[in-house]
Amino acid sequence: MAPTHGGDARSQGGIAAEPSAPTRAQVAGSPEAQPCTVGKSGVSIGDRAFEKLRRLFAERGAPEAGLRVAVQGGGCSGFAYKLTWEARPHEKDRIFAREEVRIFVDPKSYLFLIGSLIEYEEQLLEAGFKVTNPRVTSTCGCGGSFTVG
Q: Is the entire prediction scored with pTM above 0.90?
């Protein structure tokens, strides 16, 4: 599934506020999970994204499902986010979970997403998931692609 605002997730650099509940991370197939820290480690799920994803997952009735967050080459600044629904994680994915809400990230994308916060925003003319990524050094004018430093 693409983000709900009609394009790839918007990019934003900087550090965001910690969510009210911790996100935990693990590699698919590994029994141990570690806490994530916004701006420093893992990929955190913000409060509004958590509530929105929990509702969407409940509607789908798929307890093993998750939101895949990937980074791919493209856009006018070099990289773009791609968000899709997945029935289950791939073998080497990193899994970031906050209660029953799970985000899957492949190993290559994770290198670009370390310390990021996934949030959901609703504004007058658009709504969608937003990635606040401390590694972003610039974005294109529309905010759909980014450069990392």
A: no
